[in-house]
Amino acid sequence: MSKIKSIFVRIIDNIDLTFVISLAYLLFIGFIAIYSASSNISGNKYITTQFVALFIGLIGMFLLVNFNYQYYKYIGKFIYLFSCILLVLVLFFGTEHKGTKGWFDLPFFSFQPVEITKLMLILSIATFIDKHWKEVTKISVFIKTLCFTIIHFLLIMLQPDFSSTLSYFPITLVMLYVAGAKLTHIFSVILYGSISVVIPLLITFFKLQPNIVQSSSILSFFVNVPSSLQSIAFISCSIILIIVLIKWFLCKIKINISWRYTIIFFCIIIAGALSSVVVNKTLKEYQRKRLIVFLNPVIDSRGAGYNIIQSKITIGSGKFSGKKFFKGQQTQLGFLPEQRTDFIFSVIGEEGGYFIAQLTLLFYFLFIWRALVVAKQAKDRFGSLVAIGIATMFAFYSVINLGMVMGLMPVTGLPLLLVSYGGSSMMSSIFAVGILVSIHIRRFY
Amino acid sequence: MSWNNSDKYEYECFLEKYKNIMLIFVFFFIVLSVRLFYLQIIKGSYYRNISDIQRLNRTYEKAFRGFIYDTNEQIIVNNSTNYVALFYPFEQQYEPTKESIKKLNDILKRDISHSIEKSWRYGRVVKLAENLTIEEVFKIQENRLFLPGIHIVRDPKRICYNSIENAHIIGYVNELKFEEIENIEDTDLKVGDIIGRCGIEQYYDKYLRGKTGGFYFEVNARGRHNKTFTYEQPVMGNHLYLTVDSKLQTVAYEALKNSSSGKGAAVAIDVRTGAIKCFVSCPSYDLNKISSPKNYRTYLKDKNLPFFNRCIQALYPPGSIFKIITFIAALEYLNYNPYIIQYCTGYFELGDRVYSCSLRTGHKKINLISAMAYSCNTYFYTLGLELGVRVIVEYAKMFRLGEKTGIDIASEKKGFIPTPEWKKSKMKMAWLKGDTAILAIGQGALWVTPLQMANLMVTIANRGRSYKPYLVEKIVDSNTKEIIFQHQSIENARIELDEYTWQQLHKSLEAAVDYGSAKRTKFKNIKVAAKTGTAENPHGKDHAWVVAYAPSDNPKLALAVIVENGGFGGKVSVPVARKIFKQYFNIVDEPEDIELIQEGKNVKN
Fold first, then answer.
1. What's the pTM value of the predicted model, to 2 decimals?
2. DSSP helix/strand/coil, A205
3. What is the DSSP string of A167-182?
4. B246-286+307-602 in CATH: which number?
5. Which of A310, A340, B167, B213 could bridge across to B284 with cysteines, CB 3.0–4.6 Å?
6. Is-contact A341 A375, C-beta < 8 A?
7. Which residues does chain A have within 8 Å of residue B51's beta carbon, measured at their own beta carbons?
């Protein structure tokens, strides 16, 4: 009893008011938007589910706040093992929804393990990095850390759930960066990843615009080669040629770069180009279109570009004063797709207007800023790493989601955590908040 | 202080990187805020507008076009209703779903899928089926939930009485096609609107059209009605009152149809005003049947060209009718005494060429009056050569040949008068005396329309006074019954000739009816003046002409009749003219003289 009391005292003494207010605001506006987007068709169904998820989340949060985060260090291995088991189990016993086998059908609700394994991965990576702090600059540790993520990544891609895996590498890389990994390593991974993704996407993009391709002979040469492998070979050859030229030029002006780096650079580009073939095969046509069409949604306004166009119209039509909640025509008449989940911010923008939308942005910013401050003030290295991981998760999700609804980023299907509808993501977000608070209230002890 | 003191340096490093992450993150949120500002404040009105456009929809209820009456206020064109099923696109659905097509097929018991492929589109709207019965309409309305985006619209349909003989006056209407919309300056029109394509319907389209109405409503993303805002009643177009006489039309068309070739045109004009009383081109098409593409194609393929408006679009050589011009020129220019007698041998030699007269055996001794009456070519060859081509052309131009009459129907041809300059530049040949000779009897590259000939007769009957021919007497607002347009006769510049010339000309034209080539238009009580013509046609049988006016002492009606490839004017065209006069002047029970009929067979020109 006294222990619980002392925890309360601790929470109240050490609570970060900005953090709590912004969290409360986000939850509140999320509930209003979800209710507005769903009530006229399905009544209270979704809002109830969301409340239940929040309630469970809050219970879990309370337990997590009580739990000293430092113990995670000792059970890190088991957490990782458990998360892998969850992901394997869902492949066998999960139920399929929209082509993704990623849900456990529990008696009252279905549960998506991906949401919770995300947190587990952050904890286990933090454990690993904390243990190998001194050697984190070594490539072996770097690769081992990446392996944690890659295993998860592969397991999730088996479901397949492409969008959920998107945040994994950024989170891992940021954690490694903060821990002190070499920039060369990090940039190599980023370069490799972006080459392998960007090439097939660009090809898809240009295929959507036949007239542009026709007007430029170089483009049509690359796009119209029979197989993507060939075109990739052409592209990588030309890139390598450019690199050699630059290298030669740098030598001329007496800036010497070791051949070793140049060769590594070559290898990364070629590896990236090769794996882009795999990416091209793995991602379905409509996914590739969806990812790239944001650059110019009009070229496929009835297909892949539809969501972005409607989302922009929805947000823009709110103007300054908004159309008032439950009265936004874009939302209520169903022009806005996925309005409860991915495009919830558009609902806020349309019905709440510029002021509310900007306020939501601001509070999201404050929320993440305070989460980062938790990392800064944490008592130990492990706490900082975990907090950085979680803050990065929130930041990455929010930037990608908000960028998507405003037509700046690809349509990836990432929800706006804490605001979007979705039981599992709500729960895991609240859990994450619980871990943050747990780190925060123990910063002095 | 965080972390262990021993890690102080590392903590510093951590803070360094932490700052970078903070910066990147702040940068992203600034970008997002700017973007939000841009979307909602700068482009807000633009997007609000788009959002309104996609949620606000309307149906188009076409207005009834105005009625068209004839001169006796008898209705010629009115409307009936036609129910049409339209598909309005919504969300990502730009064509009706397969299920709804199947459902519609079940209801209508016919296959409508082809109408989608053919894409009877009004921009984005697709026309699925027309001519629905009331039962089908109710069934579709009952099943509305299963037929997303499909609406029933009431479309007016044009109905014409005496639809064949009036076809060329009235003209047909149909929907404005997508390809045409760019070339149309009228911004009120949109794809799918009914517009007149020819005739009165085209010329007076703006008056007849009316104003489209319809429901304004809000749709959801699935294209279903959410709520209706307003209903705008379509406004009916204005009524037109024509100058033509429906009965006269029927008589004239029947007469032309039963003539030797069944092809031709008849135009009758009120001498006192220029009002067109009869305007028939034969063969014609059925206005009520033309909306079906199948009939339309049959008409298009018809070798007799039913769409060809022979009254104003066909160009014929005037033949002997042109002798009127030569006659006038001779009397005016040469002060020629019409009683000078010449001897007609039946042919006329000019250099090494021989031009024949209408009567092979020759008219023997003949003066100019009789030469007009009997249509003697020889006399006019001589006259023509005496006059010279320039004088003839001058007088032809004075009588407005080679220029449009200005009738209120589009695509009128203006005809042609040949000149030596034209022949030189076009055919690279010098103008010969022979050309002048045949020009004097209305042959050669001389082209006129039947309307021009009728108008010529108006001028002659009025002793030089003529009017712009017109078809529409007045336009009346369909709601207020207010007259919004009343035709005022527009007089052309009067042609001043010597009174003696008019007298002699009238005398000669009466003589043609009295004892000459147009005997068969002779009536007991009404004096008729006429001139027949047989225009030589290098491509087939001669065209049979007659121009006339009556009564000759107090002219009321002037007319021109041509029977294409008909043969001799006196034999073929004159009976048609007779029937028109008979109907117009209400002459009953005056059978044609059997003798005259017998004689008519022997009469040439």
1. 0.69
2. helix
3. THHHHHHHHHHHHT--
4. 3.40.710.10
5. B167
6. no
7. 313-314, 316-317, 329-330, 335
